[in-house]
Design brief:
The chain has about 200 residues and is an alpha/beta fold. The protein folds into two domains: about 100 residues, Resolvase, N-terminal catalytic domain (Rossmann fold); about 60 residues. Helix content is about 50%, strand content about 10%. The chain is built from eight helices and four strands, in the order βαβαβαβααααα. The longest helix has about 35 residues. The N and C termini lie far apart (about 60 Å).
Length: about 200
Amino acid sequence: MLVGYARVSTSEQETRVQLDALRAAGVRKVFSEKTSSVGDRPELRRAIQCLQPGDVLVVWKLDRLARSLKDLLQLLEGLSHRRCSFRSLTEPIDTTSALGEFVLQILGAVAQFERALIRERAIAGQVAAYRRGVRWGGQPRVLSDGDAAEVVRLRGTGLFTVAMLAEIFECSESTVWRTWWLATKPGAGKLRTRGLPVLGAYL
């Protein structure tokens, strides 16, 4: 079965052109939505979830499906695991054919090459900076010493969840968990130099 997916980025745009092209290609079941590619795409999830082995996900153009080459390859890998295929109506990608598989392999090689270049440039930049005398002390702290101490104190009362503290201090939940873990780690002498309170005072 052919399952179509159509998307436009704003509510002012229309999916009519995409829908007409999908129906002309023989697609009878279409999921469409108006949302940015960087946001949540619930209709895309529904389209993928309804696919059965042997089905083909069809889009008008690749940029309607994926936000980047990495995103595209991840989506196609997920379809492969479901034993489903993919077809773009305006680009030479059709994983039901040998040519489409070949193009997909080229895209994968390009993505791998791109990652290698980025990694190589990052390492070269770090080496150059090191030679200039630049030293790194890790990532900048999200929370100040005072905020970190307050996070631990409030968490220690048992009245605040990690999600609540993350919202209060405008940081991620992982930052709250890390701060709490550091404060409760046995023998963490360095914490006192950062002003973090001793856990026992709040238990």
